[in-house]
Design a protein that fits this description.
The complex is a heterodimer of chains A (256) and B (156). Chain A is of the alpha+beta class. Chain A folds into three domains: 44 residues, no CATH class; 104 residues, Uridine Diphospho-n-acetylenolpyruvylglucosamine Reductase, domain 3 (2-Layer Sandwich); 93 residues, 2-Layer Sandwich (Enolase-like, domain 1). Chain A has ten helices and twelve strands. In chain A, the strands form three sheets. A five-stranded antiparallel beta sheet of chain A has the order 4-5-8-6-7. Chain A starts with a strand and ends with a helix. Chain B folds into two domains: 73 residues, Ubiquitin-like (UB roll), CATH 3.10.20; 75 residues, [2Fe-2S]-binding domain (DNA polymerase, domain 1). In chain B, 40% of the residues lie in helices and 15% in strands. A five-stranded mixed beta sheet of chain B has the order 2-1-5-3-4, covered by helices on one side. The chains are: A alpha+beta (256), B alpha+beta (156). At the A-B interface, strand 1 and helix 5 of A face strand 4, helix 3 and helix 4 of B. The complex binds flavin-adenine dinucleotide (FAD) and FE2/S2 (inorganic) cluster (2 copies). The site of one FE2/S2 (inorganic) cluster (FES) has 10 residues of chain B, from loops.
């Protein structure tokens, strides 16, 4: 349960940033993950009064506010079209409708969770986070950055001529994924992201020629990641599943 | 903290602790259909509508409902009873504990998706866990209920 002494709706990003510099304070997104932490906070900082719950689309990019909930992302027509349904495919297995109406994309990306479907799909695209102080950072770099006290304001996706696909494997529907896989093909390159290994998503980029033999590409790419065992699956099993997901996702994109 | 909101269209003002969960607040206000089935935002039992959208009242911060409308099963008695009859006809419930959250989400599905496929129905309702059944009775009840509502609408 979220425990705190005070709850403040920030009136500006500057105010939120200042409040967030205190170790005892914390930003709340959708409270999905935060509420699981057993801790008494000083002030909980709420960003929902700052207009960050919108998705703007123009010819060049999508700009997604940190407070957009996962279902608004999932149901956005422009994103669905741009990603051939891959964003929807990445989100639809996360817990349930009510949960995705509650939790936010900002909290999901800021968390950089190992199991994250959300991080996996964004990483495959030409995407960036916009931090209040840290400026604009490439998604794969942000994933590696240590947790600090900055504020994630927006997520930006540059519209590149890419074909995108997403697959995940779960032991049981709506559970955390055993392996996630996002692929983007275009501009002479292929980028493959594999996450939930169970460590967080990472990316491999090759020239499109690597796809002459899809099976070979899937085996080599799956092998290039590191895997560990946990209660959901063994490392060997994960690598095997990753290979299958990469192959299927590539084939689906190519045949689409 | 001062809070002012509508619960089932009734205006309520109150002074609450900053970390009062929405779920406990609603129960305090007499909405005992709202229950907690888990500690991890996983079961869907606590489902209420915030401005018409189904959300988890165990998770959504209460203060975000300030100046907004919350709907609980208590505010949807007629619809709930109508769907409840379909559940009973299919022998869908066993202990019935999961029912309030499930019904709230079925009624949200009805409003959200015009002519849902089987897959749409399953996906929309996948966040409502039931520990007793295998969901097939519920699924039949939802299909029959939605078909019934469509035929009533077509007749109008
Ligand atoms: C039971 C359960 C199952 C889940 N299953 C999956 C799954 O299968 N796949 C998947 O991808 N995800 C899954 N998730 C994660 C979920 O999708 C969200 O990513 C998670 O709840 C965090 O989002 P939130 O909006 O709830 O953030 P919160 O929990 O509110 O915040 C998370 C963290 O981010 C910080 N934060 C939030 N917003 C900002 C901001 N704008 N700037 C800086 N810091 C910020 C918070 O301080 C906190 O540290 C699951 C979560 C739960 C609880
Ligand atoms: S009580 Fe289980 S999801 Fe809210
Ligand atoms: S009938 Fe018992 S939990 Fe669903």
């Amino acid at each position: 349960m979220l425990r705190c002494n005070d709850y403040i709706f920030a009136e500006s990003l500057e105010e939120a940033y200042k409040l967030n510099q205190k170790k005892n304070n914390v930003i709340v997104g959708g409270n999905g993950w935060l509420k699981l932490r057993k801790r008494q906070w000083g002030t909980v900082i709420d960003l929902s009064g700052l207009g960050l719950d919108k998705i703007d689309e123009n010819d060049e990019e999508f700009r997604i506010g940190a407070m957009v909930c996962l279902s608004d992302l999932e149901n956005h027509k422009g994103l669905d079209k741009y990603t051939c349904g891959a964003v929807k495919d990445s989100l639809k297995h996360i817990v349930g409708t009510q949960f995705r109406n509650t939790v936010t994309v900002g909290g999901s990306i800021y968390g950089r969770f190992g199991f994250s479907d959300v991080l996996s799909i964004f990483m495959a695209m030409d995407s960036y986070v916009e931090l209040y102080k840290g400026g604009i950072v490439v998604m794969s770099e942000f994933a590696k950055m240590p947790y600090d006290r900055d504020i994630l304001v927006n997520i930006i996706i540059k519209k590149k001529p890419l074909k995108i696909g997403y697959s995940s494997f779960r032991n049981q529907s709506t559970d955390f994924p055993v392996v996630t896989c996002a692929v983007a093909i275009g501009e002479g390159r292929i980028a493959t992201v594999v996450g939930a290994r169970p460590s967080k998503a990472d990316i491999r980029t090759d020239s499109a020629e690597a796809l002459e033999d899809i099976n070979d590409y899937a085996i080599k790419t799956a092998k290039s990641f590191d895997y560990q065992s946990n209660m959901r699956a063994s490392a060997e099993y994960r690598e095997h599943i990753a290979k299958v997901l990469i192959k299927r996702t590539v084939e689906r994109i190519i045949n689409n | 903290m001062e809070i002012k909101l509508w619960i089932n269209d009734k205006l309520i003002t109150d002074n609450v602790e900053p970390d009062m969960p929405m779920l406990e607040f609603l129960r305090d206000k007499g909405c005992l259909s709202v229950k907690r089935g888990c500690e991890t935002s996983n079961c869907g039992l606590c489902t209420v509508w915030l401005e018409g959208k189904p959300v988890l009242s165990c998770t959504m911060p209460l203060m975000r409902a300030n100046k907004k409308h919350i709907t609980t099963l208590e505010g949807l008695r007629k619809e709930a009873a109508e769907f409840g009859a379909f559940l009973a006809d299919e022998g869908a419930d066993q202990c019935g504990y999961c029912n309030p959250g499930f019904i709230m989400n079925v009624l949200a599905l009805e409003r959200d998706i015009e002519d849902p496929t089987d897959e749409d129905i399953k996906e929309y309702l996948s966040g409502n866990l039931c520990r007793c059944t295998g969901y097939t009775g519920q699924f039949r009840a939802v299909k029959k209920y939605l078909a019934h509502k469509r035929s009533v609408k077509a007749d109008e």
